[in-house]
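pls design
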């Protein structure tokens, strides 16, 4: 990430632009002054633009707001140094060149789920719907996972009075099978896709893979369906194969979430975000997710106490990006 000296006066950092950019949607909002809420929230189709500069320019033109001074956004990609290449979109860009093109004093670009993780401490109880487990332990590590266009994985590690987010790529870790059926599903997908990461099954494209894999396993000839149609049929209960595919996604998510909880020691709970699970409602509650989450042999009791909570807030990653900039302003350190 690029470095820039912080302005000496807090007011010089406004307006602040915050964003959340995924493979399907790019969300933006502005903060006009200290203590004010997000305004001018817009959702744009990411693939319609050549990169973040074009998307941000289109957003600023649409809302006709003052040019921002500071900006932070999450992006569905690893962020190593200056060059960013998105995993599930054609965008490639330089952070330093983007900052110069937009005339920003400060630009922070982070992994999208690290930014979403930053929102968790600021969420209200009504923004989190609990699905099993006990009470979160205050001050403990928190895990975050969520399927959408890809599978995001992050977490929060306590640091003083606040948290530091984990910017990893856990969605690309190898996914393990539980039982013969899952092994056969993974084998079928692996023969066609190569390495079977968690994202290959626990995502929108993963749901499509699971639908076709279940059909092949049962010897049923089907036409390919997109994830939205599979999900709609599963929620309506009109297609048993779609129900099986969505149940499998939830079960595999339970496996991945349990692994995350064990790795982080996430006694603060596991939060579930992304574009899929928050839309499933009662289907998710009835799904194999929670049973699979707890079914970890000798550590069943350990995991049974850890709460799993679905993030239901609207555009929570924008709140996380706002907290990133607020934390930076309080620190007095240069952006990095």
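designed seq:
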């Amino acid at each position: 990430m690029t470095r820039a000296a912080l302005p000496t006066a807090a007011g010089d950092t406004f307006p602040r632009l915050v964003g959340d950019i995924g493979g399907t949607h790019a969300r933006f909002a502005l903060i006009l002054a200290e203590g004010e809420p997000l305004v001018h929230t817009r959702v744009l189709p990411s693939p319609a633009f050549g990169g973040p500069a074009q998307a941000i320019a289109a957003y600023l033109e649409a809302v006709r707001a003052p040019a921002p001074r500071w900006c932070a956004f999450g992006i569905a990609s690893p962020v190593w140094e200056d060059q960013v290449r998105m995993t599930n979109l054609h965008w490639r860009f330089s952070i330093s060149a983007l900052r110069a093109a937009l005339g920003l004093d400060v630009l922070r670009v982070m992994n999208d789920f690290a930014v979403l993780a930053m929102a968790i401490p600021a969420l209200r109880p009504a923004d989190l719907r609990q699905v099993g487990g006990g009470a979160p332990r205050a001050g403990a590590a928190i895990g975050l996972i969520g399927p959408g266009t890809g599978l995001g994985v992050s977490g929060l590690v306590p640091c003083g009075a606040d948290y530091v987010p984990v910017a990893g790529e856990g969605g690309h870790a190898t996914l393990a099978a539980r039982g013969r059926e899952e092994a056969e599903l993974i084998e079928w997908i692996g023969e066609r896709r190569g390495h079977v990461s968690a994202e290959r099954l626990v995502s929108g494209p993963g749901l499509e893979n699971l639908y076709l894999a279940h059909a092949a396993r049962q010897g049923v000839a089907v036409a390919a369906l997109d994830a939205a149609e599979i999900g709609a049929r599963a929620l309506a209960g009109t297609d048993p194969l779609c129900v099986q595919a969505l149940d499998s996604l939830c079960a595999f998510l339970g496996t991945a979430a349990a692994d995350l909880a064990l790795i982080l020691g996430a006694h603060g709970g596991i939060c579930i975000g992304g574009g899929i699970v928050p839309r499933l409602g009662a289907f998710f509650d009835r799904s194999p997710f929670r049973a699979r989450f707890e079914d970890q042999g000798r550590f069943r009791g350990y995991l049974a106490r850890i709460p799993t909570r679905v993030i239901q807030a609207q555009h929570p990653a924008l709140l996380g990006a706002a907290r990133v900039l607020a934390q930076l302003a309080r620190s007095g350190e240069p952006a990095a």
